[in-house]
């Protein structure tokens, strides 16, 4: 379809007419003895990139390619077209004298979007463009939808996410994001495998939702007649494996949280969690900064990236600062001087922050940090030593048990990693679970449930352990300069479209 037809698509009646014409062409093709979906297999000798990257090798040679027609220009008894395969586009030249009268008439019937296989000789056109002089072609699949030559009518991101298949066809930069995502995931595995970590798989269906503060999706197992939960984290099963002696394990997979959606959140997302025995959260800091730097160097060729116009330097070591000191630096309040919960709540109210009844000092510290500090953390930084009230699975600091050996890593004001020196005291862990149960009973649907089997595992004995979680989608966002998490998930969660 030429650009002159783009405006036609704005008229529903004309669009329906164009779709009807495409379906009529099915009958025309069949009357010519061509089955538009009749070929099961088509053998290619090359991809477009092979020829375009090494023209001298292929000049004058006969090749066979396949792809989707992306443009078509007919001039009497000769036609040019661009076909697009996995690696890009290449021009083809179809001439009446070369393919014969019947085949040329068939080619004239074909539409943009149709998928064809071509055989022909490699040459350069008069304008110097690498081209295939077609001697034979086959229709591999007829397109019945109107494929825009440009993104007319599908500029709305909502439609792009719903019709990702068309998005990938039309916008090469979208395909590049997902090719790079694959490279990133491969690099993560390579980094961890080289460090001796064992990749494992743990259940997606849980009988207890644990390992994170999040509302789960609930389903029902008919045979067992019990409710089950889609996992919200990987943590508790992986730590069971540490107890079992596997010592260095990781898993990268989907987790599910029944929460809101925005540019940083999707209800299902990819999470990396890893655990290593006989180390602590300082060991996890070293792994985090080294992993980010390794991935950036591997896929982008540098440890410096540009994100939304800002240069981010991922080169280790990253800055390290406690949560309390970060609040003091950016807000001017020193919570080391605050002695009571009431005093902390009063400070939050003075800062015009919304508080809840019965809030404890640690919860207020987290609130102040979330609301007033995070936005300032542009360059990579480890925020250390989180309050125990918001860290039910982390080990307390020996010199200040109100805080835990926990950090979160921030880039561009966004959390990208969360890690602990893991709590391995079963008595302390059970007490914290009981406190979480009280919060659930008070209406907090994100508070942890009691996991008696996990307590039992800790009673068997878990060595000192460092654990780390990284949101893979957010990592991909930074490596691809993507504004929204939906831009790095092939099929983001969407509300069903009203008919």
What order do the helices and strands come in, and which of them pair?
Elements: H1 12-31, H2 48-53, H3 55-58, E1 62-75, E2 78-85, E3 88-95, H4 96-99, H5 101-109, E4 115-124, E5 130-141, H6 157-162, H7 164-170, H8 172-194, E6 198-199, E7 205-206, E8 218-221, E9 226-230, H9 235-243, E10 248-256, E11 268-277, H10 281-300, E12 304-307, E13 310-313, E14 319-322, H11 323-330, H12 341-350, H13 361-372, E15 381-384, E16 396-397, E17 400-404, E18 406-411, E19 414-421, H14 426-441, H15 452-460, E20 465-471, H16 472-480
Parallel strand pairs: 3-5, 6-10, 14-15
Antiparallel strand pairs: 1-2, 1-4, 2-3, 4-5, 7-9, 8-9, 10-11, 11-20, 12-13, 15-18, 16-17, 18-19, 19-20
Helix pairs in contact: 7-8, 8-10, 8-16, 9-15, 11-13, 12-13, 14-15
Structure description:
This protein is α+β, with helices and mostly antiparallel strands and 499 residues long. It is built from 16 helices and 20 strands. It folds into two domains: 3-151, OB fold (Dihydrolipoamide Acetyltransferase, E2P) (Beta Barrel); 170-331 and 373-487, Bira Bifunctional Protein, Domain 2 (BirA Bifunctional Protein, domain 2). The strands form five sheets. It has an eight-stranded mixed sheet with strand order 6-10-11-20-19-18-15-14, with helices on both faces. Strand 8 (218-221) and strand 9 (226-230) form a beta hairpin. Helix 8 (172-194) crosses helix 16 (472-480). The longest helix has 23 residues, at 172-194. Mean pLDDT is 93; it is low at 1-10. This is Lysine--tRNA ligase. Its cofactor is Mg(2+). Homodimer. Its EC number is 6.1.1.6.
């Amino acid at each position: 379809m030429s650009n002159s037809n783009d405006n036609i698509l704005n008229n529903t009646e004309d669009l329906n007419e164009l779709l009807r014409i495409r379906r009529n062409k099915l009958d025309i093709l069949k009357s010519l003895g061509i089955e538009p979906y009749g070929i099961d297999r088509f053998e290619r000798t090359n991809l477009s990139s092979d020829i375009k990257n090494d023209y001298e090798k292929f000049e004058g040679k006969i090749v066979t390619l396949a792809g989707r027609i992306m443009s078509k220009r007919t001039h009497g008894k000769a036609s040019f077209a661009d076909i697009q395969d996995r690696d890009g586009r290449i021009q083809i030249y179809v001439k009446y004298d070369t393919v014969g009268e019947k085949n040329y008439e068939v080619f004239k019937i074909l539409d943009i979007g149709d998928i064809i296989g071509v055989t022909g000789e490699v040459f350069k056109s008069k304008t110097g463009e690498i081209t295939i002089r077609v001697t034979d072609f086959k229709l591999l699949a007829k397109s019945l939808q109107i494929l825009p030559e440009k993104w007319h009518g599908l500029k709305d991101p909502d439609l792009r996410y719903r019709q990702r298949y068309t998005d990938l066809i039309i916008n090469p930069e979208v395909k590049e994001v997902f090719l790079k995502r694959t490279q990133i995931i491969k690099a993560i595995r390579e980094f961890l495998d080289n460090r001796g970590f064992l990749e494992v798989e743990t259940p997606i269906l849980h009988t207890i939702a644990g390992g994170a503060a999040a509302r789960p999706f609930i389903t029902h197992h008919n045979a067992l007649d019990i409710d089950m939960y889609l996992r919200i984290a990987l943590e508790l099963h992986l730590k069971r494996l540490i107890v079992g002696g596997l010592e260095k394990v990781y898993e990268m997979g989907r987790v599910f949280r029944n929460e809101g959606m925005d540019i940083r959140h999707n209800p299902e997302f990819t999470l990396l969690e890893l655990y290593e025995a006989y180390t602590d959260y300082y060991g996890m800091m070293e792994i985090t900064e080294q992993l980010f730097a390794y991935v950036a160097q591997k896929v982008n060729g540098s440890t410096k990236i540009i994100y939304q116009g800002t240069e981010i330097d991922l080169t280790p070591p990253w800055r390290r600062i406690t949560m309390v000191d970060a609040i003091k630096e950016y807000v001017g309040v020193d919570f080391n001087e605050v002695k009571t919960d009431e005093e902390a709540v009063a400070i939050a109210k003075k800062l015009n922050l919304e508080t809840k009844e019965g809030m404890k000092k640690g919860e207020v510290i987290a609130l102040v940090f979330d609301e007033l500090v995070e936005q300032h953390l542009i360059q990579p930084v480890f925020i250390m030593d989180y309050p125990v009230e918001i860290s039910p699975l982390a080990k307390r600091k020996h010199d200040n048990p109100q805080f835990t050996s926990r950090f979160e890593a921030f880039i561009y004001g966004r959390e990208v990693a969360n890690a602990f020196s893991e709590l391995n005291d079963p008595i302390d862990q059970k007490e914290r679970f009981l406190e979480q149960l009280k919060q659930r009973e008070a209406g907090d649907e994100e508070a942890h449930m009691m996991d008696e089997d996990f307590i039992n595992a800790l009673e068997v004995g878990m060595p000192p352990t460092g654990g780390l979680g990284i949101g893979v989608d957010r990592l991909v966002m930074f490596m691809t300069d993507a504004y929204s998490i939906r831009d790095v998930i092939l099929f983001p969660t969407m509300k069903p479209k009203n008919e």
